[in-house]
Specification:
The chain is of the alpha/beta class and 230 residues long. The chain has eight helices and seven strands. The chain has a seven-stranded parallel sheet, with helices on both faces. The structure holds ligand LYK5OOP5.
């Protein structure tokens, strides 16, 4: 090449050039790479945790609440059975379950989420990671849990429970039993699901082996662990 045909730049020089603007940091192609990195980090952190059960429930449950004590017992029982506890790593039910697992020397996983005013991962987590994207984090819950226990909670808990039920219903995940703790709390929702959703033909029969509402913590743990194939 001669004269003005000779390029004034090349890709190597472009790579090394200092950035004048950082707008690219906020563009979708760059986000895709961050999402990929989050998946890679998550898979790397969790691939070898062994059998695990996810515990979902309110971030707002007080330490004196009976449900906090029940979630702590679940964490303990799972650890005693050699099963890892996976939570969102936050306060409330998540903290209680991690606390129980940690106290019994079990694997206590906290998959935190970046949120404004968030206090960070609770101190009873011994395998923790913080995610930027809810959907990446939900993939980790589903991929690495062989069962789930759902305590009373709000939108976050409902989102996690319905994600799992949808994936089970569409056979995207293998058998993943779900135990719901707190008959009174869940009764209204499940009466509506049975009386309206099912009656209108919007869902198929809920498999009683896979979705169990109970007040009995032993039963909840047994149901959640029934999906473990060792
Ligand atoms: C609301 C408060 C803190 C929020 N911190 C959270 N940290 C980690 N994970 C969370 C947090 N909030 C919600 N989640 C996830 O959703 C579920 C609980 O949501 P709910 O709306 O409270 O039911 C839980 O299982 C987490 O995975 C201040 O206390």
């Amino acid at each position: 090449m001669r004269g003005n045909m000779i390029p004034t730049d090349n890709t190597y020089a472009n790579l090394l050039a200092p950035e004048k603007s950082t707008d690219w940091l906020h563009m979708d192609p760059w986000r895709v790479l961050r999402i990929q990195a989050e998946f890679v980090d998550g898979f790397g952190a969790l691939a070898e945790i062994g059998p695990a059960v996810a515990i979902f429930g309110s971030a707002r449950t007080d330490r004196r609440d009976p449900m906090y004590k029940a979630a702590r017992r679940c964490g303990r029982m799972l650890a005693e059975a050699g099963v890892a506890t996976i939570t969102g790593g936050g306060p409330g039910i998540m903290e209680a379950a991690n606390r129980g697992a940690f106290e019994r020397g079990g694997t206590s996983v906290g998959l935190g989420i970046e949120l404004p005013h968030e206090q960070g991962i609770n101190r009873w987590v011994n395998l923790g990671m913080t995610f930027r994207y809810f959907f990446v984090r939900k993939t980790m819950f589903v991929k690495y849990s062989e069962g789930a226990i759902v305590f009373p909670g709000g939108f976050g808990t409902l989102d996690e429970m319905f994600e799992l039920l949808t994936l089970v219903q569409t056979h995207k995940v293998a058998r993943t039993p779900v135990a719901l703790v707190g008959r009174d709390y869940w009764a209204g929702l499940f009466d509506w699901i049975e009386g309206t959703l099912k009656a209108e033909g919007m869902i198929s029969e809920l498999d009683q082996q896979l979705v169990k509402i109970t007040d009995d913590i032993e039963e909840a743990v047994a149901v959640a662990m029934s999906g473990i194939r060792r």
